[in-house]
Amino acid sequence: MLALLLCAVLAVHADALDVRVPESPVVALFGTDVVLNCSFSGVSKFNLSDMSVFWQLSDTQRTVHSFSQSRDQLIEQEERFSNRTSLFPDQLPAGNASLLLRRVRVSDEGSYTCFVRVQTYGRGAMLMQVAAPFSKPLVTWGQESALKPGDAVALSCEAYGGYPEAQVLWQDGAGRNLTDNITISQVANEKGLFSVKSVLTVILEPNSTYSCRLIHPLLGEEGQASVTISGQALGFPPLALWLTVALAVCLLALLVALTVVCRRKIRESCEEMRAEEEAKELEEAKELEEAKSSAATPLKS
Ligand SMILES: *[C@@H]1O[C@H](CO)[C@@H](O)[C@H](O)[C@H]1NC(C)=O
Ligand SMILES: *[C@@H]1O[C@H](CO)[C@@H](O)[C@H](O)[C@H]1NC(C)=O
Ligand SMILES: *[C@@H]1O[C@H](CO)[C@@H](O)[C@H](O)[C@H]1NC(C)=O
Ligand SMILES: *[C@@H]1O[C@H](CO)[C@@H](O)[C@H](O)[C@H]1NC(C)=O
Ligand SMILES: *[C@@H]1O[C@H](CO)[C@@H](O)[C@H](O)[C@H]1NC(C)=O
Ligand SMILES: *[C@@H]1O[C@H](CO)[C@@H](O)[C@H](O)[C@H]1NC(C)=O
Ligand SMILES: *[C@@H]1O[C@H](CO)[C@@H](O)[C@H](O)[C@H]1NC(C)=O
């Protein structure tokens, strides 16, 4: 009983409320809900109607959320936070003034101050960082043809929809960093999410692999994509091409030969027919003549 009384007396006479917020930045995933922790202690027992909680943007002191007289007071709330914030009212008596922020946007990134007043007051500021993962990187090259050693090619590595900007590393098959002749561009869309495109210009070496690794500053390694160049100077595609050409030539030759043979056959059979016809005609003529001569001779002998 005495201890409790002492506590109450101490609390009342404390200079400031002990407000605690995370010391290291809180990383919130884009589009998800995040709880910005804020807890306070130093008051043993209080009437909810006697307390106020303000969440503000540290830089501008604009209102993110405010609570007083036992309820939310949102008239002064920044437009962009409307319908996206709430406290946990049932947790307030337990010293939990955390803020729930829904559907996190890129523009929400920044410093937030939690201000609590019960009899006395205290505050704490914390940093929130927004992170959005990139899509899996994709390596492409200009020409439609297959890649082969000796070609000068611009290999392009692209990924999109991430935040903040990513680091792109090009490496060879042995994991060595390629640093020359690389360009990178990162463009943000209307939501603030970046598309990243890095182009590596190289003369392709035989038996080599070129991989593009995407590194997210907050989420770490995000993915990689690579192309491998076949060892032979005449790789599979040229061989296939030659085979196709050879096959086509063979087919053509066969066709020509067939045509020639057929023509000859047709001509031969035609000649045969003609010969036969001639022979027939000759025979018929003979028969006719014979008939004539027999007609000349009287039938009745
Ligand atoms: C918020 O506080 C709770 C309870 O102390 C803890 O479990 C959680 O990890 C904290 N969240 C962050 C983002 O600090
Ligand atoms: C406050 O309460 C909410 C809801 O129960 C919880 O998610 C959060 O971790 C609590 N924070 C602290 C610091 O206890
Ligand atoms: C809390 O404050 C209200 C209004 O000031 C009062 O009516 C109520 O009795 C108080 N409750 C406690 C538990 O002190
Ligand atoms: C917030 O929600 C209310 C009711 O659902 C709606 O009328 C209002 O337009 C919403 N405001 C914003 C900015 O979305
Ligand atoms: C490649 O570069 C990255 C970033 O600059 C570095 O962390 C890594 O150690 C380098 N790797 C090699 C094999 O040099
Ligand atoms: C970079 O490009 C230049 C000019 O095109 C070329 O001379 C050089 O060899 C290239 N460097 C590498 C590492 O490919
Ligand atoms: C490429 O690799 C193949 C098999 O892995 C090997 O036979 C060939 O000698 C290599 N060529 C070069 C130029 O390293």
Defining traits:
binds 2-acetamido-2-deoxy-beta-D-glucopyranose, six-stranded mixed β-sheet, elongated, disordered C terminus, 301 residues, alpha+beta, four-stranded antiparallel β-sheet, Immunoglobulin-like
User: Which overall shape is indicated by the principal axes computed on the Cα atoms?
Assistant: elongated
Total strands? 19
Largest sheet: 6 strands, mixed
Can you tell me the residue ranges where pLDDT is under 50 for at least 5 consecutive residues?
Answer: 2-14, 296-301
Series of H and E elements: HEEEEEEEEEEEEEEEEEEEH
Average residue pLDDT: 85
Radius of gyration: 45 Å
CATH architecture of the largest domain: Sandwich
Estimate what percentage of residues fall within beta strands: 35-45%
Query: Count of DSSP helices?
Result: 2
- Indicate the CATH class of the largest domain: Mainly Beta
State the end-to-end CA separation. 172 Å
CATH topology of the largest domain: the name is: Immunoglobulin-like
User: Which ligands occur here?
Assistant: 2-acetamido-2-deoxy-beta-D-glucopyranose
> Helicity range of the residues?
10-25%
The domain tally reads 2
CATH superfamily of the largest domain: Immunoglobulins
- Class derived from helix and strand content: alpha+beta
Strand order of the largest sheet: 2-11-10-5-6-7
Keywords: Immunoglobulin domain, Membrane, Signal, Transmembrane, Transmembrane helix
Subcellular location: Membrane
Organism: Carassius auratus (Goldfish)
Protein name: CD276 antigen isoform X1
